[in-house]
Amino acid sequence: MVLDFLQQGYFALFVIICLGYVIGNIKIKGISLDISAIIFVALVFGHYGIIMPSIIEKLGLILFVYTIGIQAGPGFFDSFKKQGRTLVIMATVVIISASALTFAAIKLFDIDVPVAIGLLTGALTSTPGLAAAIESTGSTGVSIGYGIAYPFGVIGVILFVRLYPKITMANLKKAEQDYEESSTEVFPEISFKHFIVENENVAGKTLAELRIRTMTQGVISRILSDGKPTVPTATTVLKNGDIIKAVGTEEALKKIGVLIGRETTQEVPLKEGYEIQSILVSNTAVVNKTIREIIQWTSTYGVTITRVRRSGIDITPSPNLKLQMGDKIKISCSRDHMEVVTKLFGGNSKKLSDTDFFPIAAGIVLGFFLGKFSLNFGSSFTFSLGLTGGVLTVAMILSRIGKTGPIIWSMSGGANQLLRTLGLMFFLAGVGTKAGAQIIETYNEYGFNLFLIGGALTLLPMIFGALVAKLLLNVNILSMLGALTGSMTSTPGLAAVDPMTETNAPSIAYATVYPVAMVLLIICVQILASLG
């Protein structure tokens, strides 16, 4: 009876997920597989002939990769500027070493070139690499090699990234703190100080004339003039002896001190009838608007924006900073206008939990077409991003754009996490059952040697990459693990790393190196194919 039910794909899918979660929560000496245990359950089901429809794997892959891109996109570009070169070096080490080992295997073990190339692409779980290899060689040996190496390519990466922190006794909590501290270098801590207006070149001029926001990246939130607190506007004139409250980074406050005068311990009280409040940005009308545009838009209400909190980080509200959906802004405003101003920005947490599926579907469609687009370099080399690369690239670009007309491309954290987990479960179940269906038959037909070579092509490049990252590049372990999974083009590997930390470090590193690794692998495949 149960076996009959298991022949129903949808029933088997959720049985695999249930068993995967049960097994994933089992800890042995502090080690657990978490959600990645689903793939091991799926391998067993696949061996006994229970295979997920291919649409399950594709749907899961698309949802998982798209949500990763949406989450990683805003930080990807900053990360690439900051550590892109370092992570690309890691990817290069992994791909070049894997290709060199493949060449050595061809020479030492007299393996057919197409089979060896298949081992390489399977060990790195690269479908675009497989497609390029088949096109270059025109041989079925590529698919055979891919089938031999692929199961351990999936499992080996998962085991490596899960066990590496335990083997090296890495402190992941410390790594999280280090990563967050390095992030504050991009978004320094916001504080406030009080200054006395003493500069003769400042006295008698309006704030609009002084352009303090633009010049210092700081904000004047209050002014005490003639013993009375006031809320600054563009037309406010500073006078000698006035006391101002400035908000900004340490560097911004230093610049304000040079411009205005010496620091003082005397504080400026809040103007009577005014209050300070944090408001959640949930109104699409203000998304992608700059602080300068917002200030102009709300000028009649006397609003002062003193800071913006985004993804747990306080950001100085510089004039060109664009608001994003889900930002939390701290404002000073008259009590009479606070209700109106709150509605202008949204202030509706329920709206953030509502998910508009049109941007998701539209983004995936655009990613599909980008993945189909190919570039021809002569008659022997064609490059395309493929489904995974296309969807990932589009998601990162759209999340960076944020808004196009009425369309909001970003997603709330809860919605992103739900869709990502759903996609991940489907993907692992589909990949696992497909690999499990072939693993025993492949072993019986081709013996154990090719499995060992495939396993070496998976593990050794990761070991080389990890050594280079640790000893030469000093890469944070969370970024290193994400970069390794990206270098191995392993989405299941990223799925194994993702639950290990609350930061976006692995996802951003994965998104940074994935396109580079894919291009390098295709080039290496073309070079190896020329040997045959």
Written account of the structure:
The chain has 532 residues and is of the alpha+beta class. Helices cover 62% and strands 11% of the residues. It has 21 helices and 13 strands. It has helices at residues 2-6, 9-24, 37-47, 54-109, 113-123, 127-137, 141-167, 172-186, 207-210, 212-216, 250-260, 291-297, 335-345, 349-353, 357-372, 386-401, 413-446, 449-473, 477-487, 491-497, 505-529, and strands spanning 191-196, 219-225, 228-230, 243-248, 263-264, 274-280, 304-310, 313-315, 328-334, 374-376, 382-384, 403-404, 407-408. The strands form four sheets. It has a five-stranded antiparallel sheet with strand order 3-2-4-1-5. The model has no long low-confidence stretch (mean pLDDT 80).
SS strand fraction: 5-15%
**Structure class:** alpha+beta
* Percent helix range: 55-70%
The beta-strand count equals: 13
Rg over CA atoms, rounded to whole Å, is 28 Å
Choose one word for the global shape.
elongated
Give the neighbour order of strands across the main sheet: 3-2-4-1-5
- How many helical stretches? 21
State the main characteristics:
alpha+beta, five-stranded antiparallel sheet, four-stranded antiparallel sheet, 21 helices, 62% helix
Short characterization:
This is Transporter. This protein has 532 residues and is an alpha+beta fold. The protein has helices spanning 2-6, 9-24, 37-47, 54-109, 113-123, 127-137, 141-167, 172-186, 207-210, 212-216, 250-260, 291-297, 335-345, 349-353, 357-372, 386-401, 413-446, 449-473, 477-487, 491-497, 505-529; strands at residues 191-196, 219-225, 228-230, 243-248, 263-264, 274-280, 304-310, 313-315, 328-334, 374-376, 382-384, 403-404, 407-408.
